[in-house]
Every structure is written in C-alpha cells, then in structure tokens.
Write a structure and sequence with these properties.
By secondary structure, this protein is α/β, with parallel strands linked by helices. The chain has a domain of 124 residues: 3-Layer(aba) Sandwich (Rossmann fold), CATH 3.40.50. It is 34% helix and 25% strand.
C-alpha cells in the first residue's frame, strides 16, 4: 500500500526498570486497515497500545499518527490528537452510575451536561448500529448481560465517529457464541465506517475474523506479520505453537 500510514511505529522500545518490555517495535498500519497484535500475557501488547495512545512514553523510537510523532507532543496537542481515537476497553469499562445513553455519549460530552434530547438521539442511533434497542437507554449497565454491556461499550467507541478504533481484548469474558457476535459487529463497523482498527488479543478466532493482517509480539519484538489467512501456515514455530495452543514448542 502507498501513502502515509495511519499509524506507524519505528523502533519503539520501553523498559520498566530492569524489565525490558518492548525491544524495538516496527509496525505500519494503513488507513482503513484492521490489524491485530497477538501474543501471550506479558508480551507487551498492552504497553504497545498505551504508547500509541500517549499514556506511556517510550524510551526511544517514534510513533506516528497521520505522520505526526505522538512521542514529541505536549499535553494539549496530544489531547487534540486523541479526538481521532475510539476505544473499546477490556471488560467494557462502562460507568455503572450513568444510564446507557450517557455512557454511549460520554466521549462526546466528556461527562458535561449537554442537550439531553440530542444526546439520547445520538445514543439511540449508535445502539441501533450494534443491534440494541432504544428501550435500554435509561437502564444502568448492571441491568444488562455481559454481551449487551460489550455492545454498549462498542456503541460508545464509535459514537464520536473516530478515525481510529482500538480494541483491547474485545471478546474477553464472553462465551464463544457471544464472542463471535462481537467479532461480526466489529468487522461490519470497521467496513461501514471506514475506520482504521488496531486490536490486541490472544483470541485466535477473533484475530482471524476481524483483522486484515496479524502481527505476533514475542519477547519484546514483532517476530512475524502477515495476512490473516497465513496465520495457520506462517512457517514460524513461535506463531504455530501460539495459534495451535500447544504446550510443546519454543515458547516457554
């Protein structure tokens, strides 16, 4: 693909004391592309995501969003940059004290009072996009099932119409059927809205379904990347072991 990548990581490294989490990450994501980063617990997936979001500053390297280096931005510029981002947090991270409609529009209002009628309409439109009825607008998240909570969180992620959506373990805590429903929704939303997507996951079914391309993070480096249909024929013993969930292999 040609043109400026939507997201580009160049030799990104991060350590916490003696713990070297990222050893030099290189990754490029094109506009409208959906990429999944896979890897085991502690492989650095979440740290990579937090570095892109500007929540953690890497020790060295560049993180470019639309060609602008996030690592060199001040607080105000970084805040403007984050308006391009939508986020589906692991576990949903909904506010139990707020009704569904205020949760969905939180990214637009930032918790401040706005035109309630308009916000309810926006919430209803986005709930419809994820297959939920407007009857739940006034319910609290605790009154919803886990699968419905995840859909509400997805509606919140897309409500501000971001250019980039990050998915943090989007199917965690869901049974296989509900997980597949969420994967289908993510795939259709990415295509319908034309957004760029970056997912971190250890769920191979999710990676295969929602990503155009998959990258595997191991020992602080991306050791393989390729189209999702190559995931089961990568020729990389680390990827093969992880994808197949085998105890025997180079990963200990």
């Amino acid at each position: 693909m040609n043109g400026t990548p939507k997201i580009e990581l160049r030799n990104v490294a991060k350590a916490f004391g003696a713990n070297r989490v990222l050893e030099g990450i290189d990754l490029s994501i094109q506009p409208g592309e959906s990429v999944a980063i896979i890897g085991g617990s502690g492989s650095g997936k979440s740290v990579t995501l937090k570095c892109i979001l500007g929540l953690i500053r890497p020790d060295h390297g560049e993180i470019l969003v639309d060609g602008a280096d996030v690592t060199r931005m001040g607080a105000r510029e970084l805040e403007r940059q984050r308006t391009k981002f939508g986020m589906l947090f692991q576990g949903g991270a909904l506010f139990d004290s707020l009704p569904v409609w205020r949760n969905v529009t939180f990214g637009i209002t930032q918790g401040r009072a706005r035109d309630a009628t308009r916000m309810r309409r926006i919430a209803a439109e986005n709930l419809e996009r994820v297959g939920l009825d407007s009857k739940i607008l006034n319910l609290r998240p605790s009154e919803l099932s886990g699968g419905m909570q995840k859909r509400v969180a997805l509606a919140r992620a897309i409500a501000p119409r971001p250019e980039i959506i990050f998915f943090d373990e989007p199917t965690t805590g869901l049974d296989p059927i509900r997980a597949d429903v969420i994967n289908d929704l993510i795939m259709s939303l990415v295509e319908d809205l034309g957004v760029t997507a970056l997912t971190i996951t250890h769920d191979m079914a999710s990676a295969r379904k929602i990503a155009h391309r998959v990258a595997m993070l191991y020992d602080g480096r991306i050791i393989w990347q390729g189209p999702r249909d190559r995931l089961h024929s990568s020729g990389n013993p680390y990827v093969d072991q992880f994808v197949q969930g085998r105890a025997d292999g180079p990963i200990r």
